[in-house]
TrEMBL record:
Molecular function in Gene Ontology: efflux transmembrane transporter activity
A Pfam family assignment: RND-MFP_C
Species lineage: Bacteria, Pseudomonadati, Bacteroidota, Chitinophagia, Chitinophagales
Residue ranges of the TM segments: none
Protein name: Efflux RND transporter periplasmic adaptor subunit
Length: 361
């Protein structure tokens, strides 16, 4: 065959063959794409799964905390006033110092009462001597019984006058009523005072009292002798006290009940009048089930939780109890060991496939 014919054949057939191979490749790619699209459509028609985080339910002790505000008070506190008018002759206490029960604080002028008592004692001595003589005369009927009785009555009357003046004398000595810390004095030696003159104050600060308010619905939960915890401004330590008394009547305006706790203060770090943040433990339970608050799905009729069982969602109706800051108590519907969803709960449906990517306890 001539070379010219062969070269012409090659030049004519090669473009045709190239086009044919390109067409076959395009058809193959088109068929593969259609197959993948059909498989994708088939897969999309199947059930959709959910990837979410979950929480394992367990039992643990439960106690809810109610926070209130309170004030520290002195266990005993008095303002010291004189019982009678008089002139101050001596002041026996140091401002801000510690005093004991019965310590003499202030002395008032007592010269006139001292003189009166001395006079009465002299009169009594004379009457006692007279009575001794009359005892002998009465024995020999040398004196009437009435005259003898008059002398005895005179002695008794003088004794009463002496006792009265001694009582008045004690009123001129102002003493501490109990152990405590004395305040600032408002008088000086030589001042004339009356029963309306404030001399100083005495406060007993070990222990202290703490008054705080609790809503009336807790009156049957918080009991006498229960422990309470509290903090004060400027001190990060949590301190405690014991409820000593409960006001039997609730306040009509606020519907709260006043409670009083006793607080140890042996180191004198706390002061009367200090504001406190009080924490009261309510509803103590040794075993309770609590779950994160966000796990609850509210409905028009009840509350539900999404429980994971065999890779699918089971919508369980629950009954809730005490609500805490970040958790809620479950009374019915769940048990220890159940796995519940904590995320994606607004998209879940009954029997929806679910894959747990993270579990917390």
């Amino acid at each position: 065959m001539p070379d010219t014919f062969v070269s012409k054949f090659d030049s004519n057939i090669k473009p045709f063959l190239g086009l044919t191979f390109m067409s076959l490749f395009a058809c193959s790619a088109l068929m593969t794409g259609c197959k993948e699209k059909k498989e994708e459509e088939k897969t999309s028609k199947g059930p959709k799964g959910l990837v979410a985080e979950a929480y394992v339910v367990k039992q643990a002790p439960l106690s809810s905390i109610y926070q209130s505000s309170g004030n520290l008070l002195a266990n005993e506190s008095i303002s010291v006033y004189p019982e009678v008018a008089g002139r101050i002759t001596a002041i026996h206490f140091k401002e801000g110092g510690i005093v004991r029960k019965g310590d003499l604080l202030v002395s008032l002028n007592s010269s006139d009462i001292d003189a009166q008592i001395q006079k009465l004692r002299a009169q009594r001595k004379l009457q006692v001597t007279t009575k001794e003589r009359q005892d002998q005369l009465l024995a020999i009927s040398g004196i009437s019984k009435q005259e003898y009785d008059n002398t005895v009555t005179q002695i008794a009357s003088i004794d009463a006058d002496i006792a009265y003046n001694q009582a008045q004398l004690r009123k001129l000595e102002i003493r501490a009523s109990f152990d405590g810390i004395i305040g600032l004095r408002n008088v000086s030696v030589g001042a004339i005072v009356s029963s309306a003159t404030l001399i100083t104050t005495i406060q007993q600060i070990d222990p202290l009292k703490m008054d705080f308010l609790v809503p009336e619905q807790y009156k049957d939960i918080v009991k006498q002798n229960d422990q309470v915890h509290f903090t004060v401004t400027g001190n990060n330590d949590t301190m405690q006290g014991k409820i000593m008394a409960i006001q039997p009547q609730a306040d009509v305006a606020t519907h709260t009940i006043t409670m009083r706790a006793i607080v140890p203060n042996s180191n004198h770090l706390l002061s009367p009048g200090t504001f406190t943040n009080v924490f009261i433990t309510l509803n103590r339970k040794s075993e309770a089930i609590t779950i994160p608050t966000q796990c609850i799905i509210p409905t028009t009729r009840d509350k539900q939780v999404a429980v994971v069982r065999k890779g699918k969602v089971d919508m369980v109706t629950v009954q809730t109890g005490e609500r805490l800051e970040a958790k809620v108590e479950i009374l019915q519907g769940l048990q220890a060991g159940d796995t519940i969803l904590t995320t994606g709960i607004m998209q879940v449906k009954q029997d929806m496939p679910v894959k747990v990517k993270k579990i917390t306890e």
